Amino acid sequence: MRQLTPHERRRGYSPGSTRxxxxxxxxxxxxxxxxxxxxxxxxxxxxNGLEVVEExxxxxxxxxxxxxxxxxxxxxxTGGTSGIGLAVAKNMAEKGAKIVLASxxxxxxxxxxxxxxxxxxxxxxxETDVTQSNRVEHMVKETVKTFGRLDFAFNNAANIExxxxxxxxxxxxxxxxxxxxxxxxxxxxxMKYELAVMVNQKSGGIVNTSSMDALICSAGTAVYAAAKSGxxxxxxxxxxxxxxxGIRVNSFCPGAFMxxxxxxxxxxxxxxxxxxxxxxxxxxxxxxxxxDTREAASIVAWLFSEDSSYxxxxxxxxxxxxxxx
Length: 325
Ligand SMILES: NC(=O)c1ccc[n+]([C@@H]2O[C@H](COP(=O)([O-])OP(=O)(O)OC[C@H]3O[C@@H](n4cnc5c(N)ncnc54)[C@H](OP(=O)(O)O)[C@@H]3O)[C@@H](O)[C@H]2O)c1
Hints:
Elements: H1 6-10, H2 22-28, H3 37-48, H4 57-64, E1 74-78, H5 83-94, E2 98-103, H6 106-117, E3 123-127, H7 133-147, E4 152-155, H8 173-201, E5 204-209, H9 213-216, H10 222-242, E6 247-254, H11 260-263, H12 271-283, H13 293-304, E7 315-318
Helix pairs in contact: 5-13, 7-8, 8-10
NADP nicotinamide-adenine-dinucleotide phosphate (NAP) binds next to helix 5 and helix 11.
């Protein structure tokens, strides 16, 4: 019996391993079903390397069993380099979509792209500030230039870089404009260019990220809440406008999800203050916990999928049970 190489030992092969080529293994086991075999094999090899042995059969089977809802579909995700956006990108890549990540920081972009590439090679990053019309136009053009179409747009980018301002009567007017630009105008700008592509295709799905703050209205979040409630109304109105073009538009309304944005609220607090704030987020909802971004991702993926084909103009709330209206 031949000696295993160190690489094979690390991967847990046994001395009796028989090498296979993946398509034969899949065919021999009758696993291919209706899924595009060559495409699946390429994805498996991109993720796991070229070597395929008998012992890996259960792992391969598990990989092939993933529901390939979005094969050959193209998804553009603003704010796709962090938090909720990155979780959505990974979820949709796992389901076969080609992914475009967009955000301002190239460094974050390349780091996030590496994570998505570990799932699928069909992903790019486009440096974009969603408050800049020419950058948004470029983002949509580059998407179509690279992948030939645009099926789904998750308009999710936002920041709260200007919310650490004093109370309303002390706030500079400029902070209002900045917050409105990044939380509301950006969503309109993205849709303006995305819809132009989708109308020509006669199909498309758009999901815009709102926030629980739009519904519960607490002190200190006035402008953010107003902008995010604008996202809900904008989505509903545009859903009416484009329904007959085969385009569905919904908003996604998160409660508290553990992301860098939420974590920024904990910065500079003492350990006791951190614990108290964490408990506040948890106590606030019926489930008594902060959301996992993967839970957000599966809702957004559902909104893009055919499983929600009769859903448009809706604001889908995922808050662990805060808003019961
Ligand atoms: N996490 C929560 O609990 C929560 C609750 C309610 C609503 N939300 C909403 O959910 C969305 C995602 O938030 P998150 O928590 O996932 O935040 P996050 O982890 O901070 O991610 C925000 C993303 O948006 C990008 N971004 C920020 N400003 C941008 C701009 N001007 N142009 C382009 N990209 C920009 C960021 O990348 P760059 O910095 O590189 O640009 C990053 O990729 C936001 O709309 C947020 O308001 C979150």
